[in-house]
Protein: Glucose-6-phosphate 1-dehydrogenase
Amino acid sequence: RKPENHILVIFGASGDLTHRKLIPAIFDLYIKDTLPEKFAILGVGRTSFTDEEFRKRMGEGIETFASMVKASSNKAEKLKSFVKKLYYTSLNTKNAEDYNGFKSTLLNLDKETGTGENFIFYLATPPSMYTVIPENLAKQGLNSENTGFKRLIVEKPFGYDLESAQKLNNHLLKDYKEDQIYRIDHYLGKETVQNLLVTRFSNGIFEPLWNRNYVSHVEITSAESIGVGSRGGYYEGSGALRDMLQNHLLLLASLVSMEPPAIIDSNSIRNEIVKVLQSIRPIKEDEVDKHVIRGQYMPSTIKGVKVKGYREETGVNPESRTETYVAMKFFIDNMRWAGVPFFIRTGKMLPTRVTEVVIHFKQTPHHLFAGNTAITNNQNQLVIRIQPDEGLLLKFGMKVPGSGFNVQNVNMDFHYADLSEKELPSAYERLLHDCMLGDSTLYSRGDAVEAAWKFIKPIQDAWEKDRNISVHGYPAGTWGPDIADNLFEDPHLSWRYPC
Ligand code: BG6
Structure:
């Protein structure tokens, strides 16, 4: 389906996100012929560029980062016709008076292109601008849908804590309706994350088992093998809890645990996400150290190469207590999940890059083949690999051929790569296209963002107030602090260590 004609305005157009992710994703949409007939991109930034300079820079980004570049036959021609749709205007976004001129530029481009005053405003800017830009646009009447649609895409971080997220929501809702606001969590744009819903709700072999009667525990891991790189300055004020757990991991946990929506539409799905987020049992401030482990990577040698510790990274305080790893255990207090622990962890500088969800099923009630370690160690698992080797792995016991009844664990493994020759669309490609179509299903709703912050709040408060809660060091290139294993009170259980 093609979206209505429109102009996409990108604030922060001279930044990294625009050049690495946004423009390449839109180019991919162009190659797949899924952009509207009349369409333009207006880049806005403080740096002054001519349209030609902007086009050249974006062209370079496309060559390096767009996935369809390789597949496209007459690449040079396509690139040339695509970049003609790009325009640039400089604006001091802090200066309310300058928006008058910006509005004229935008309306002139709209007339020229014939886009019917349909505008999407993408805020690829520092978070400090998330209130300023929308407010100034509204002052110019650019929030009004009397003529054409007006949509606002807001990048993460959406707030810094519960209070700032509520403030930001309230601020935006003064001038925009909730259905005009698209809060991006790029995890929801991932094909395999969306597939969680299909796996759960379209398979009679999984759906009936997805509850406390059959599931012993759920494990979610998002590991990165890289450190903070050049983002030390940002990361110092964020840490793994805000950067990954409050948004991406809690969202994954909600999709794994939510009730089936009555129908597949934006509000039905998002209602279920909010309900489950609101059902997570709050962790009491004085129990944070029992349920949450934080860590920080230390210098180490990986495959003979020396690597820096977090405290030596550029932009990082040498005495920093910012966590680069966090692991926690929580419960969801509802009928489906009562008593089932959820273990989630994320970290930088771990041995590999992998994001996966593991559903651990309970053992059979009677152990006919007792004594077999594979079975007693609870090896019935469904591993949902979100990335990088997208797919599903089912682990179960089979009889070892020959005499006796020896059981061995075997794997049934499906790789997304086997499903089609096509590359999976990038998260940004999917999400941008959905916003163009006016479909907000894969965007976070304000109440869900607030519910996630509310759950995180006692952890933030405890870490801030109580210096006795340790930040455990772990050598870069290892699976985080060993003490994270203690979250599993059962000595037979531990984290899965994917290779
Ligand atoms: C971002 C975080 O939201 O997600 C980064 O700010 C992190 O720190 C990234 O590296 C991980 O995304 P992905 O898609 O590579 O798992």
In short: Residues 446-465 form the longest helix (20 residues). The two ends are 40 Å apart (CA to CA). Residues 156, 224, 243, 355 surround 6-O-phosphono-beta-D-glucopyranose (CB under 6 Å). The mean pLDDT is 93.
